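Fill in residues.
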């Protein structure tokens, strides 16, 4: 049997709500030789991408149609368990990112003071409390417009997630290494189709910066 891998690519403007990333051990924050090399390679690719980008933007509705009509994906019904889980998690994440004031005292993101076991446990408990509070907020006060498009072949199971209110494009996949690499290219193709306007290019907006990041990755 071929060895399978799982991958998830998410593009969200700004902080990813409840997700906190921290480093343990490398206190000085020094980069390894490999990390420095990878960063330099990224900067080279980034400059190349910036020179190649042309104005050709499409709406989220057009991106959704492209995924279905051109790539052959099928939209997941909102009654399915998978959709409900993705919707629940994403809605909580987006609420914490865009409307944290609705959380009252829990609006402030918890801080991790130390990396000992007790501090870590307390930190994640606070995050969980914040997440549950976000889930309890009525959809009348805050909601998202999520659409999931899925496709399955012998060597790859993949999906695109489109959130139209806050313009998010993300993807996830599981399969053989070779098929995963092909899907990574497909994700970049979808994001390129989403594109940017001339104004985005001139003003180097968040949409432009994210396109550059995705294509240079």
């Amino acid at each position: 049997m071929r060895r399978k891998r799982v991958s998830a690519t998410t593009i969200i403007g700004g902080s990813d709500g409840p997700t906190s990333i921290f480093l343990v051990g490398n206190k000085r924050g020094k980069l390894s030789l490999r990390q420095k090399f990878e960063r330099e390679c990224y900067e080279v690719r980034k400059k190349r991408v910036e020179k190649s980008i042309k104005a050709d933007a499409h709406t989220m509705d057009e991106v959704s149609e492209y995924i279905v009509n051109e790539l052959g994906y099928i939209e997941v019904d909102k009654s399915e368990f998978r959709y409900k889980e993705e919707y629940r998690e994403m809605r909580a994440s987006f609420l914490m990112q865009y409307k944290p004031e609705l959380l009252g005292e829990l609006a402030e993101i918890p801080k991790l003071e130390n990396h000992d076991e007790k501090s870590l446990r307390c930190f994640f408990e606070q995050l969980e409390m914040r997440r549950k509070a976000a889930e309890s907020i009525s959809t009348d006060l805050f909601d998202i417009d999520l659409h999931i498009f899925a496709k399955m072949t012998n060597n790859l199971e993949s999906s695109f997630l489109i959130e139209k209110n806050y313009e998010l494009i993300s993807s996830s996949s599981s399969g053989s290494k070779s098929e995963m690499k092909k899907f990574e290219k497909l994700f970049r193709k979808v994001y390129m189709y989403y594109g940017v306007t001339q104004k985005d290019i001139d003003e180097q907006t968040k949409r432009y910066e994210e396109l550059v990041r995705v294509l240079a990755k």
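The first strand starts at residue 4 and ends at 11.
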